[in-house]
Design a protein that fits this description.
Helix content is 46%, strand content 24%. It has helices spanning 22-33, 62-86, 90-97; strands at residues 11-18, 42-49, 52-59. Strands 1-3-2 form a 3-stranded antiparallel β-sheet.
């Protein structure tokens, strides 16, 4: 992930999403990476570190960054609901541990 400010894309955010298992983090990363970013004004990168999914966005304007991250959260919500329905026990296991 980039650590310096890119003058062409001065606005950035990193979303770190802790998940119950590394397998779920990898699954979400692979699912999200399939779709290309809709605008050339936004750049997106994914990385997993153990059970944490990191999504890094950079954009030319704050508005484009907001639009892109809103879309990311919608997609993440949908994917988590699908995983909860299809991958029995993965998300429930974390609730039991708490």
């Amino acid at each position: 992930m980039a650590s310096t400010v890119d003058p062409a894309f001065p606005h950035s955010i990193t979303i770190s999403l802790p998940l119950p298992t590394p397998r779920l983090a990898e699954t979400l990363q692979q699912s999200l990476a399939v779709d290309q970013e809709l605008s050339a004004l936004v750049v997106r990168e994914f990385r997993t570190q153990g059970a944490t999914l990191e999504v890094y966005y950079k954009a030319t304007t704050a508005r484009m960054l907001r639009v892109a991250t809103n879309g990311a959260f919608e997609s993440l919500g949908t994917l988590l609901r699908v995983c909860e329905e299809l991958d029995v026990g993965v998300l429930a296991a974390e609730e039991e541990e708490e």
